[in-house]
Amino acid sequence: MPDQFQAVREQLDQHPGPASAEQIARLFKRAPTKKVAELLQTLATLGQVRQDDRDRFSNAS
């Protein structure tokens, strides 16, 4: 599971702006949007990414 968090975070870091879970999920061959959303929400709870009021995520730094 740590690899999944790292992979999602790396894709988010490379995205040019805030991204939805669906946008990030499309960057993987077999990643359900629901799973990516859960990973992103966990990262947001831990303060490693930001989540806006439209459920879009961006780098926390």
Automatic annotation (TrEMBL):
Residues 1-20 are annotated as: Disordered. This is Uncharacterized protein.
